[in-house]
Amino acid sequence: MTGGVLIPLLQTVVTSATPLLFAALGELVAERSGVLNLGVEGMMLAGAVFGFAVMTATGSDTLALLAAAAAGTTLALLFGVLALTLAASQVATGLALTIFGTGLSTLIGARYTGRTVPPLPRLDVPGLSELPVIGPLLFRYDAMVYLSVASAFAIGWFLRRTRGGMVLRAVGESDVSAHSIGHPVIRIRYLAVLFGGAMAGLGGAYLSLAYTPLWAEQMTAGRGWIALALVVFAAWRPGRALMGAYLFGGITVLQLYLQGSGLVAIPTQILAMVPYIATIVVLTVISSASARSRLSAPACLGKTFRVAT
Fold this sequence. Notes:
- Keywords: Cell membrane, Membrane, Transmembrane, Transmembrane helix.
- The chain is an all-alpha fold.
- The protein has 13 helices and no strands.
- It is globular.
């Protein structure tokens, strides 16, 4: 593999990892508050289609990204009403949200199928973008790539160094205890879930506005589920989520490269399965009770909280 191939390949790994990182970070915050939202795939699709629709109508990158975040937040709010206010099963509600988001995106996106938009502009840093090797690897991406990395560090700082982050973690570890000392458990979980929806929406929008700047039905192709596995793989730590997103992004790009290069005599169908096989393996390995304990999963994850009357 020559340098002329390696650098574009690594650049593709970065862009492939970006939507995973957005979605995983949002879900990580929700899960640290004790909420398991399996609707990430649906929220990503909603963000992808609404972002693309607004971009097509207005030509504004900013408005498109805001619309995508709003779409993801709206679906997250629906989840919150059902799972937090009405105390419905979080697992069932999350699965229903994915089905709803998939159907909604198909309905709204029918008129946009096959259409393209200009990709998000790249930020060229004068003097740095022209550096050999380092320039194209670090300084030739759109703003969303840098925002995703900055978000990982910001969320890590928030969870570990701020009072708000400690309260959120306390709610996820022992909601009853947090409630007994006066913390509004439901309100905190709502905010965490809404943040997760906005991040999933941005992750979906990155697919339709930058990674492949077009709309195609179910274009997330299971990335929402990979993001869910990535949260557990990262042991609910933003720094590990950052590394895991690039690892899974690399696996995705590698199988595409192997399919196109013909270097290995493996059927393309098997190569296409590699990212999802990796996801299943990760979830299988960490599914045991002992593994969950070592990974320090939030103690109240997925448990319904009701205020005693």
